[in-house]
Design goal:
Blueprint (H helix, E strand, L loop, with lengths): L1 E3 L4 E3 L7 E5 L2 E8 L4 H7 L9 E12 L1 H16 L3 E5 L3 H12 L13 H15 L3 H20 L4 H11 L2 H27 L5 H33 L2
Parallel strand pairs: 4-5, 5-6
Antiparallel strand pairs: 1-2, 3-4
Helix pairs in contact: 1-2, 2-3, 7-8
Length: about 240
């Protein structure tokens, strides 16, 4: 038996056909493990009945082994591991065993194919995540800051905290809070949309970035002021 470094093959001058044999310690393969026999060997391969411990493949009677034969051993190794057992190869020359071990180390499993998500499921998931992630903390903070500022003004005029809270509770309605949160949502969308629009039109220079920033701020303020006026008209017509 000789080893040629050009194609990493263990060769013997014969034409022996490969064959699987069940041995007491596991499996035995005889003959050629080459590109023209690996496919037939893989199709005829079957796991032993009892997969306890380690399945040892005796390759001492292999007369020829090329890269296709090594790939066959790697595939058998994966199949045995998937069945819950350990796999070991014995009887190969040191050079061929080194190539086999290097192929095992370089083996990368193909990623699982991700199935497409149905359209209605995607829409439902998006809506659910929107409710979970849309936390109007900034709007609530602005409401609390406005109430605190109002109390400071009222207190400076000589009124007590109890009188301020009483009048706030008397004149406030739930729809005031709902309207405020709706306005916060619309204002946020306007600011984000204006910022994206101006950002997409930005030039490549540093001066262009500054001009786009200024345009985004001014345009957002104007858009919010116009939207606030429209909300006031709508709320007045609805009697809110």
């Amino acid at each position: 038996m000789t080893i040629t470094a050009a194609n990493h093959r263990v060769q013997k001058v014969d034409n022996e056909q490969p064959l699987w044999e069940v041995s007491p310690g596991g499996l035995r393969v005889c003959g050629r493990l080459a590109h023209d026999t690996a496919g037939d060997l893989w199709r005829s391969f079957s796991l032993p009945v009892a997969l306890d411990g380690t399945v040892v493949l005796d390759a001492s009677r292999v007369t020829e082994c090329d890269s296709a034969g090594l790939a066959l051993l790697v595939m058998i190794n994966g199949r045995v591991l998937a069945a819950g057992a350990r796999f070991a190869v014995s009887g190969l020359p040191p050079e061929t065993m080194a190539l086999y071990e290097s192929m095992l180390l370089g083996r990368v499993e193909a990623p699982a194919r991700k199935l497409p998500t149905p359209f209605f499921e995607s829409v439902g998931r998006f809506v659910a995540n929107s409710f979970n992630e849309a936390l109007a903390l900034l709007a609530l903070f602005a409401i609390v800051a406005g109430l605190t500022g109002g109390f400071v003004v009222i207190y400076s005029l000589g009124y007590s905290f109890e009188a301020y809270v009483s009048h706030v509770m008397q004149f406030s309605r739930p729809h005031d809070l709902y309207g405020t949160l709706i306005k916060a949502l619309v204002f946020g969308a306007l600011v984000g949309g204006v910022g994206c629009h101006c950002g997409l039109q930005t030039g490549r220079s540093a001066d262009a970035v500054g001009r786009s920033t200024t345009n985004a701020v001014v345009s957002a303020i104007v858009a919010v002021a116009i939207a606030d006026g429209l909300f006031a008209v709508v709320f007045y017509c609805l009697g809110i």
